[in-house]
Design a protein that fits this description.
The chain is α+β, with helices and mostly antiparallel strands and 173 residues long. It has six helices and five strands; from the N terminus they run H-E-H-H-E-E-H-E-H-E-H. The protein has a five-stranded mixed sheet with strand order 1-2-3-4-5. A hairpin with a 4-residue loop joins strand 2 and strand 3. The protein starts with 19 loop residues before the first helix and ends in a 14-residue tail after the last helix. The model has no long low-confidence stretch (mean pLDDT 97). Bound molecules: acetyl coenzyme *A (ACO). Acetyl coenzyme *A (ACO) binds next to strand 4, helix 5 and helix 6. Keywords: Acyltransferase, Endoplasmic reticulum, Membrane, Transferase. One of its GO terms (molecular function) is glucosamine 6-phosphate N-acetyltransferase activity.
C-alpha cells in the first residue's frame, strides 16, 4: 500500500498536536501521526498484540470504537508510527486526559497501551511514542502523566524520564 499523508486521512485529533521535536527525531522512513479511521487496515491490532491478547472485532466494530473515542473531544489521543514504504503501523500508544475536581479542576494524563512491533524494538520508537504522549498531556495542561507497567518495563520508563511511585491495584471482572 502506498504511504497515505495526514491530509488524506480521517484523524482522531489534529496532527499539529504531536510535538514537532518528536517528529524531527524520527528517521526519514517513519512518520508519526494521530490514529486514523482506516488504521484497522494498516495493522493496528497486530502491533497491539505484542502487548497482550487482542481479539479481532472486525473492521466495522473497530471503526465504531474509533468513532466513540472521537465523540469525546480533547480526551483520547491515540498515536501511531507508520513505516512509509509499506504504509503499515509499527508502533502505537495512547494518552487519556482525565478531568478532575481537585487541584483547581486539574487534569491527569494516563498513558496506556504502548507497543512497538517486534522487528522495530530497540530503535527508540517506544521513547518517541512516550515523548509525544507526554507532550500532548502537558500541552493539555495536565499536572502529571502516569502509567502502569510490569517490573521488566521499569528501566524503559525510567529512560523516558518517569519514576516509580505508589502501587497499582486491580480487580478483574
Ligand atoms: N529493559 C531495560 N531497558 C529497556 C527496556 C527493557 N525492557 N526496553 C527498552 N529499554 C531501554 C533501551 O535500551 C533504550 O535505552 P538507551 O536510551 O540507553 O539506548 C531506552 O530504553 C529506549 O528504548 P526504545 O528503543 O525506545 O524501546 P522500544 O522501542 O523497544 O520500546 C517497549 C519499548 C514499548 C517496552 C517495547 O519493547 C514493547 O513494545 N514491548 C512489548 C509491549 C510492552 O511491554 N509495552 C509496554 C506496556 S506498559 C504500558 O502500555 C503503559
Amino acid at each position: 500500500m502506498p504511504f497515505t499523508s495526514d491530509a488524506e486521512l480521517d484523524l482522531l485529533f489534529p496532527s499539529d498536536q504531536i510535538p514537532a521535536f518528536v517528529r524531527k527525531q524520527l528517521p526519514a522512513e517513519l512518520h508519526i501521526r494521530p490514529l486514523a479511521s482506516t488504521d484497522y487496515r494498516r495493522g493496528h491490532l497486530s502491533v497491539l498484540s505484542v502487548l497482550t491478547v487482542v481479539t479481532d472485532p472486525g473492521e466495522d466494530a473497530w471503526r465504531a470504537q474509533f468513532e466513540a473515542l472521537r465523540a469525546a473531544p480533547r480526551t483520547y489521543y491515540g498515536i501511531v508510527i507508520v513505516d512509509k514504504a509499506s504504509d503499515r503501523i509499527v508502533a502505537v500508544g495512547t494518552v487519556f486526559i482525565e478531568r478532575k475536581f481537585l487541584r483547581g479542576l486539574g487534569s491527569v494524563g494516563h498513558i496506556e497501551d504502548i507497543a512497538v512491533d517486534k522487528s522495530q524494538q530497540g530503535k527508540k520508537l517506544g521513547l518517541r511514542i512516550i515523548q509525544a504522549l507526554t507532550g500532548i498531556s502537558e500541552n493539555s495542561g495536565c499536572y502529571k502523566t502516569i502509567l502502569n507497567c510490569s517490573d521488566s518495563n521499569i528501566p524503559f520508563y525510567e529512560k523516558c524520564g518517569f519514576q516509580k511511585k505508589e502501587n497499582e491495584m486491580a480487580k478483574y471482572a
